[in-house]
Write a structure and sequence with these properties.
Layout lengths: L13 E10 L5 H24 L2 E11 L2 E11 L3 H9 L3 E2 L2 E11 L2 H9 L4
Antiparallel strand pairs: 1-3, 1-5, 2-3, 4-5
């Protein structure tokens, strides 16, 4: 017997946060995921962070500006928890002894519009 797929009317709403990360050294995808999760865990704890349904959808390495590396990405979370995720991202200031800055570029309802509005349109 096959499991039935949950219909769209019963699924939870999602939001996509486009962000830019400026750091002094290059960061891999796994390190970025750990950085985001640890920040949320420190601020809200395990039970609240598990409700966010965080997921790193995409990551682009946008090159260097001087000595700093610029990384852009799209983060998926539950609708209603966007502000909590954004707050926890703002608290990240260093990674392995190097300075790190998160900028939230915008919030969107689809991956396509987040990519078009915030990732592709910026230099």
């Amino acid at each position: 017997m096959k499991l039935k797929i949950l219909p769209p009317t019963l699924r939870g709403s999602k939001r996509y946060i486009a962000f830019e990360l400026i750091c002094q050294k290059s960061i891999t995808r796994d390190e970025l995921v750990n950085l985001i999760w640890n920040s949320c865990l420190e601020l809200y704890g395990e039970s609240e962070t598990s409700r966010f349904r965080l997921w790193l959808m995409r990551k682009w390495d946008c090159g260097q500006k001087g000595n700093d590396f610029i990384i852009k990405g799209i983060l998926h979370c539950n609708r209603g928890d966007e502000e909590k995720v954004r707050a926890s991202l703002c608290l990240v200031t260093n990674f392995r002894g190097k300075k790190v800055v998160f900028h939230t570029l915008g919030l969107s309802g689809t991956i396509h519009s987040a990519t078009q509005k915030f990732i592709k349109s910026r230099p």
